[in-house]
């Protein structure tokens, strides 16, 4: 066997700064863009951070020279989500921040993310969440695999990483099948909320994160021009975004022994049976 | 007028309800064509014909590398047809195929679509159904993944014969993902969750016992769903999970039993036409969105409702 086992791993975890799902979220009628105040690290990206940290811990820890780089594309406030990933245990941060990126759709965002990943030398694995909790498109991982020419392993419910063979094996669901899939590095891996239990940043992690660096880069630094991203570099154009009338509470009854009948009366009234 | 291409990874003996919705939508455009990454049977072809599909492009799946064949078929079919509207199912696998092709061909990919107009403007759900947005392609081709239960299934009154062509596929360009093992899930007689007309869902409140939920689902011919608390507890398969990280449903009727209605659960069901909630806690958030809320014990209410439905139908 080669000494591949000893080669330090470079893992890039993509983290997105998104409006907190616990609050009311709004799309501005002027810009047709999401109001991004009150944003946090996308909850589903914590599973990707955890998966990356677990891979490092199973392979000699950070002492072995491995890197987990938390990377984001977004405005200045997005650094807060990178910071949270550093508190969880990522080793450094990378932040592509450029005004020209505002308004990017998935095709343009994946272009920016691919350029950002390529800015890091010798990446072995790119990890993402199963979906961003704002756009909820679940397409970025596949688009990155396409752009980077990496193997695509998505929607992993569990992950086995073999550093010696430089392979990743995952379990995922696919229609009426449960699959075990395997690919060689480099790969793009998206993980679901079934994959692990993300750790909380503890006091030690929070203190350690203060000393970790976040490299901020602009488009020029990753070799992109303004026209390749933003609305100009996007393939979709949003014409309108209308708030649906919020659902209202209907009739509420308390069961006094006949509620099952009332339920059926309701179904009959609404012609559902 | 635009021409439409519908892509299916696979079609069973006959197309599923969600697939027929895509065929209905395609039939509103010119040259509606179907591409399949496997070989459809005679019966499926007949169904395609009834939606005015003139051409079916097919290519047998060698089952070599995961996802590679489907990607090649979609790419080749798009090249072959020059369609400017591509319709896909809304599951994660289909979305990802569409997303890769969008990158490859500088096309627009739009997910969670509920309709596409004659001038190729897609209407889609945003923020878990809180908003409805109109989106168009800025580059010409629109790739839309369409949510089940969005389009009224309407075959045309025609029985055209369908021309079947084998697609020539170029060697795939993507790194291999090998299929180490494939286990078939247990088949169920109930309707598929994502496209069911009625869903009965149970949460932590069923306390390990889904029989009352199953009984009511049987009486209604409904699919069975669950909250993450119930699937995490192992009371029911993860496939049944409804919500942000599970299946999104838009049925005519959603009956929620013993589910509190957390934001992540609502994200997967709040576009249902009617919501009925049974919960013993009158302050449960699910009551804020229920058309009928019943404060009560699901172990009493559900069996009584199931018995009453059977009595009325007898
Ligand atoms: C990243 C992430 C993703 C998530 N994704 C999802 C998702 O996709 N889907 C999802 O559902 N959740 C999801 N969750 C979990 C979600 O936040 C809630 O924890 C979960 O939905 C709670 O399930 P529950 O309502 O069954 O349980 P609980 O919140 O415990 O509620 C149980 C309810 O049952 C009622 N009850 C108890 N006994 C009875 C009885 N006999 N009769 C009637 N009522 C009774 C109680 O009053 C209570 O309201 C996610 C969470 C995270 C962090
Ligand atoms: N702007 C971004 N910055 C960093 N990561 C992102 C960004 N957008 C998407 N991602 C990653 O891609 C995943 C899927 O996002 P999406 O396709 O938008 O649902 C997310 O869970 C993130 O890991």
Count of helical stretches of chain A:
6
How many domains would you count in the coordinates of chain B? Answer: 2
- In the CATH scheme, the class of the largest domain in chain B would be Alpha Beta
Q: Can you give the helix content of chain A as a percent range?
A: 10-25%
- Number of domains as seen in the coordinates of chain A: 1
CATH topology of the largest domain in chain B: Rossmann fold
Number of helices of chain B: 8
CATH superfamily descriptor of chain A:
HUPs
Most extensive chain-chain interface:
A-B, 86 and 91 residues
Description:
The complex is a heterodimer of chains A (273) and B (314). Chain A is an alpha/beta fold and 273 residues long. Chain A contains six helices and 14 strands. The longest helix of chain A is centred in the N-terminal third of the chain and has 14 residues, at 45-58. In chain A, β9 (167-174) and β10 (177-184) form a beta hairpin. Chain B has 314 residues and is an alpha/beta fold. Chain B contains eight helices and 15 strands. In chain B, the strands form two sheets. A nine-stranded mixed sheet of chain B has the order 7-6-5-8-4-1-2-3-9, with helices on both faces. In chain B, β6 (121-126) and β7 form a beta hairpin. β10 (177-184) of chain A pairs antiparallel with β10 of chain B, so a sheet runs across the interface. Bound molecules: flavin-adenine dinucleotide (FAD) and adenosine monophosphate. Flavin-adenine dinucleotide (FAD) sits between chains B (203-205, 227-230, 241-246, 258-260, 262, 264-265, 268, 278-281, 284, 297-299) and A (43-44, 193).
């Amino acid at each position: 066997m080669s000494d591949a086992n000893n080669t330090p791993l470079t893992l890039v975890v993509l983290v997105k700064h998104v409006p907190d799902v616990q609050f009311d979220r709004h799309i501005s009628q002027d810009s047709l863009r999401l109001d991004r105040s009150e944003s946090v690290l996308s909850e589903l990206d914590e599973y990707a951070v955890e998966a990356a940290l677990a891979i490092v811990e199973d392979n000699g820890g950070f002492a072995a020279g491995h890197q987990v780089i938390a990377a984001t594309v977004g405005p200045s406030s997005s650094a807060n989500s990178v910071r949270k990933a550093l508190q969880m245990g990522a080793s450094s941060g990378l932040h592509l921040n450029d005004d020209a990126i505002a308004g990017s759709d998935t095709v343009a965002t994946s272009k920016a993310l691919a350029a950002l990943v390529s800015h890091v030398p010798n990446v072995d694995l790119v990890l993402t969440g199963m979906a961003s909790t704002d756009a909820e498109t679940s397409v970025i991982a596949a688009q990155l695999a396409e752009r980077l020419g990496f193997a695509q392993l998505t929607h992993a419910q569990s992950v086995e990483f073999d550093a010696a063979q430089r392979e990743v094996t995952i379990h995922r669901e696919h229609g009426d099948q449960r699959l075990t899939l395997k690919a060689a590095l480099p790969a793009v891996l998206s993980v679901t909320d079934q994959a692990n239990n993300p750790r909380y940043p503890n006091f030690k992690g929070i203190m350690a994160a203060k000393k970790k660096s976040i490299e901020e880069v602009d488009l020029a630094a990753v070799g992109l021009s303004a026209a390749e991203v933003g609305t100009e570099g996007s393939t979709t154009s949003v014409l309108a975004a209308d708030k649906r009338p919020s659902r209202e509470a209907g009739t509420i009854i308390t069961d006094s022994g006949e509620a099952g009948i009332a339920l059926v009366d309701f179904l009959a009234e609404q012609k559902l049976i | 007028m635009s021409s439409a291409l519908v892509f299916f990874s696979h079609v069973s003996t006959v197309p599923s309800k969600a697939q027929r919705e895509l065929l209905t939508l395609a039939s509103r455009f010119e040259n509606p064509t179907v591409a399949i990454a496997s070989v459809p049977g005679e019966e499926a072809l007949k169904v395609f014909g009834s939606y005015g599909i003139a051409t079916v492009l097919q290519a047998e799946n060698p089952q070599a590398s995961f996802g590679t064949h489907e990607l090649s078929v979609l790419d080749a079919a798009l090249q072959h047809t020059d369609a400017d509207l591509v319709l896909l199912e809304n599951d994660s696998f289909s979305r990802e195929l569409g997303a890769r092709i969008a990158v490859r061909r500088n096309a627009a990919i739009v997910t969670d679509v509920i309709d596409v107009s004659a001038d190729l403007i897609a209407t889609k759900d945003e923020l878990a159904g809180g908003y409805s947005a109109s989106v168009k392609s800025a580059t010409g081709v629109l790739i839309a993944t369409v949510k089940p239960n969005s389009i009224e299934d309407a075959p045309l009154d025609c029985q055209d014969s369908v021309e079947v062509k084998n697609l020539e596929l170029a060697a795939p360009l993507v790194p291999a993902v090998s299929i180490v093992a494939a286990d078939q899930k247990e088949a169920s007689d109930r309707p598929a969750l994502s496209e069911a007309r009625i869903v009965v869902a149970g949460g932590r409140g069923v306390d390990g016992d889904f029989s009352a939920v199953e009984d009511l689902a049987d009486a209604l011919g409904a699919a069975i769903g669950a909250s993450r608390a119930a699937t995490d507890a192992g009371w029911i398969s993860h496939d049944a999970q409804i919500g942000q990280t599970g299946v999104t449903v838009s049925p005519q009727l959603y009956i929620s039993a013993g589910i509190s209605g957390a934001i992540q659960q609502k994200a997967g069901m709040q576009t249902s036409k009617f919501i009925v909630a049974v919960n013993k806690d009158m302050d449960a958030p699910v009551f804020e969105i229920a058309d009928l809320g019943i404060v009560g014990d699901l172990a009493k209410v559900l069996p009584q409702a199931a018995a009453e439905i059977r009595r009325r139908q007898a």
